[in-house]
Every structure is written in structure tokens, then in C-alpha cells.
């Protein structure tokens, strides 16, 4: 199974090269966030992050669309125990009330299902994913 390299490790440094990857994170399986403080770190470290509820059909569609483009997003399943903490942290990050799925591309909120599908249909999704280094071709 392939491992992803955290997004921050691909950002150019002052010397012009990327830092070596400190560790790997399995993003094929949904992960559960332990505390809300880690939300900012997760968004900053990964090129594409999907915050999703387990069993949500809209979240499933977003995951399928991104996988169909060849993107391997970090998927974090939000459950009942940590939903309030995660929503509070996402509210601080985006300045509004988040809805699931919440997709972050390049450290910034891209949007939910409607925004992703709209960008896909208009042809804006692939260039945005390339810019965030989520796509290589």
C-alpha cells in the first residue's frame, strides 16, 4: 500500500529544495481525528484533505471524483465523538460554519460537493490540483 508524503515537505524551502519526509501517513483508509488541535496541522501538511462523515453519500462522491482524477487525498472521518471539536476548529480556520464534506486543497478550503463538482465541470479542478501538487501530470 502506498504512503503519502506530507504536503509541507513538498513546499520549497529557503534553499530551494524540499525537506526530507519525516514519516508516512496512510491516507487510503479514513482516519479519525483525535483532537481538534490537530486539524490545522492536517490541513497544512497535506495537499488535499477531505473531512467526511462515515456513511455520507456526498462524501463518498467527492472521494470517488478525486480518486478518479488520480489524486490520493488524505481522508479524515469525523465521528460523533469528535464532530463538535472538529467543527469548532474548522470554523476558526475558514471563518464560517463548515459542512461535510469539507475539501481543502493546498491548505485552503476549496468547498464541498457542489464546489468540487462545479470546478470539475468547468475544467478548473485539475489546474487547481496541479497547483497544489496533488497531481503530477
Could you outline the blueprint of secondary structure elements for this entry?
Blueprint: E1 31-32, H1 38-45, E2 48-53, H2 57-68, E3 74-78, H3 83-94, E4 102-105, E5 108-111, H4 113-122, H5 125-131
Parallel strand pairs: 1-3, 2-3
Antiparallel strand pairs: 2-4, 4-5
Domain Glutaredoxin: 48-109
Keywords: Cytoplasm, Redox-active center
Family: Belongs to the glutaredoxin family. CC-type subfamily.
Please describe what this structure looks like.
The chain has 137 residues and is of the alpha/beta class. The chain has a single domain (7-131), classed as Glutaredoxin (3-Layer(aba) Sandwich), CATH 3.40.30.10. 36% of the residues lie in helices and 15% in strands. The chain is built from 5 helices and 5 strands; from the N terminus they run E-H-E-H-E-H-E-E-H-H. It has a 5-stranded mixed beta sheet with strand order 1-3-2-4-5, with helices on both faces. The protein is globular, with a radius of gyration of 14 Å. It is found in: Cytoplasm.
